[in-house]
Design goal:
Radius of gyration: 31 Å
Distance between the termini: 78 Å
Shape: elongated
Strand order of the largest sheet: 10-11-17-16-13-15-14
């Protein structure tokens, strides 16, 4: 086999300029030489080996750069334009996939055994090659150094005549291993004799074994989102944390402990947290982040500022990304979940804070949507304040199932405004008639009626204006009304309340100021009052463009990063 037809022939480079038949002849000769059976992979075998347990466009994830593979350097998925090397590269200079295979993406196309078919309809179901005749066209997979990155996708396939000779085509061989069952059994014991490694952890283990800490950190988050079935949402909510299997947390932790020699892992983070008596407050979270290297000089670091050099990383520094996949309030819940799973040898379940079960009970979301009349309406996010839930809803308040709905009105209670009129039309005339019987009210007062045909028990009519005396909503009035709504709901022993941005309809009050006041008053109320009954408040914003204008997503993100206390600090300043 001393004949190398490659144009770019070097010791560690893949062979190229080979026809399909030459690749077959090589397998035959190698089999005779070694006494083992070598062969070209079927398409199914090639893709199984290439994916290595992943389902993304590339085994690295959903995108690729020229730092991860050798292709023509063009952009993919909005990545910056990369380097075009204009020739094949040495095998092994890029990270392998979770099966330890190098250069799955790019470098040279790889011949498969199969003849070409336009689709998979009628293909063998056992993974064998699909051969029906004596075809001229054979399958190629993997992309090449002189092709665009899209051709490097795991699912991409093409074909050429089996006698084609170009310097971008090579091949990869398979070897039939005897006693494969025994080999698999020994590999399944590679992490810990107590665990049988599930395929979903193969890539994570490979990355950790190669000390690719950043990629392993990202893979940990991906695996946890997949286990929790939250891949589409890309974050873990409190319910997902509560239901996350302890067995999976333990396997992830053991993998990190093993390959970092006890430097990284959830249990290391947990031990550090225990030095602060497992407190749940934001101040403790900041102290923990300082110890782990997630904050610097009082500021939370961005991901691209996180250090992945093991010689300069703090104990417990990783995993990190999964903590960034939490909604507001989730850090405490995940910490408590890890503690309840008893991952650390220095912890025991008797050390779990007594409020754990109470917190898990309090995390339940009570307010639901009765029916989706608007296809885009829904809950935008939520966060917890002292175990009480604050949620943001974009849509029609009359579509909610809630104990109390709040509406804006003026002192005559005519219910002719945008929101009050909708409540009147949906809830029935009995609400209007009952409101008229309440007598004279003044700006800043709250009138209470039954919910009529709406899915609520009571309507709180917040008086924001007095047209007869030319009195219109002010910040002081809105602040008083929000507080009073919360206080009255607690006194009447209601659990849930839906609150719009008061005064912002025909009364002309600024939605931005109403949003700030509403958010701060709710946080203040839950922070400073021990509520026995009121558990959940939903801030309702009807129009989607108002949500965008108020930048609700950014506010929720900042709450997740800094805690709800930062909003109170902004008010004080």
């Amino acid at each position: 086999m001393n004949d190398n037809p490659s144009k770019f022939a070097r010791k560690n480079r893949p062979v190229e300029k080979v026809t399909w038949q030459q690749a077959k002849e090589f397998c035959t000769k190698l089999s005779k030489l070694t006494g083992k059976k070598y062969f070209l992979p079927s398409e199914a075998q090639w893709e199984y080996a290439a994916r290595a347990g992943t389902t993304t466009a590339f085994h690295y994830g959903e995108t690729i750069t020229s730092k991860l593979a050798n292709y023509a350097g063009n952009t993919y998925n909005q990545e910056p334009k990369g380097e075009w090397r204009k020739e094949p590269t040495d095998v092994g200079i890029f990270p392998p996939n979770a099966f330890g295979l190098y250069d799955i993406h790019g470098n040279v196309w790889e011949w498969c055994e199969d003849e070409w078919h336009e689709n998979y309809e009628g293909m063998p179901i056992d993974g064998s090659a699909w051969i029906l005749s004596a075809p001229k066209n054979k399958v190629l997979r993997g992309g090449s150094w002189n092709y665009d990155p899209g051709s490097c996708r795991v699912a991409n396939r093409t074909c050429l005549n089996l006698n084609t000779i170009i310097n971008g085509i090579g091949f990869r061989v398979c070897c039939l291993i005897e006693n494969a069952d025994n080999l698999v059994e020994s590999e399944e014991q590679s992490v810990n004799q107590q665990f049988t490694i599930n395929p979903k952890y193969i890539r994570l283990e490979q990355l950790l074994a190669n000390q690719q800490w950043k990629q392993a950190d990202q893979e940990t988050a991906r695996v946890m989102l997949k286990i929790a079935e939250r891949e589409e949402e890309a974050f873990l909510n409190i319910e997902a944390i509560d239901n996350f299997p302890c067995d999976d947390l333990e396997i992830i932790d053991r993998l990190w402990l093993k390959y970092s020699n006890g430097l990284f892992g959830f249990s290391i983070q947990l031990n550090i947290w225990s030095e602060y008596d497992n407190k749940l407050d934001y101040e403790t979270e900041c102290k923990l982040a300082d110890r782990l290297g997630w904050r610097k000089q009082g500021t939370w670091r961005k991901y691209d500022e996180i250090n992945f050099d093991i010689d300069n990383m703090y104990p417990g520094h990783l995993p990190w990304t999964v903590w960034g996949c939490l909604k507001a309030g989730g850090i405490s819940y995940l910490a408590l979940k890890i503690l309840s799973c008893n991952l650390s040898n220095t912890q025991n379940k008797d050390s779990i804070p007594s409020e754990f079960n109470q917190l898990i009970e309090q995390k339940k979301k009570l307010v639901t949507i009765r029916q989706n009349l608007l296809t885009e309406e829904g809950f935008l996010g939520d966060f917890a304040v002292n175990g009480k839930l604050v949620r943001i809803f974009q849509g029609d308040i009359t579509n909610l199932v809630v104990d109390v709905m709040v509406t804006s009105d003026h002192n005559s209670l005519s219910m002719t405004g945008i929101l009050s009129g909708k409540i009147r039309s949906m809830g029935g005339e009995e609400i209007y008639q009952e409101a008229q019987s309440l007598g004279r009210l003044f700006i800043g007062d709250i009138g209470i009626t039954n919910g009529g045909n709406l899915a609520c028990q009571k309507i709180f009519h917040a008086i924001v204006a007095d047209y007869n005396n030319s009195l219109f909503p002010t910040p002081e009035v809105i602040k008083k009304l929000v507080y009073d709504c919360l206080q009255i709901a607690e006194e009447l022993q209601f659990q849930t309340l839906a609150l719009p941005l008061l005064g912002t309809g025909g009364n002309g009050f600024s939605p931005k100021i109403a949003w700030q006041i509403t958010l701060q008053e709710i946080i203040n109320y839950f922070a400073n009052n021990s509520c026995q009954y009121l558990h959940e408040v939903v801030i309702v914003i009807y129009r989607k463009e108002v949500v965008a204008h108020l930048n609700i997503e950014e506010t929720l993100k900042q709450i997740a990063m800094q805690g709800w206390e930062y909003l109170l600090n902004e008010t004080e300043q």
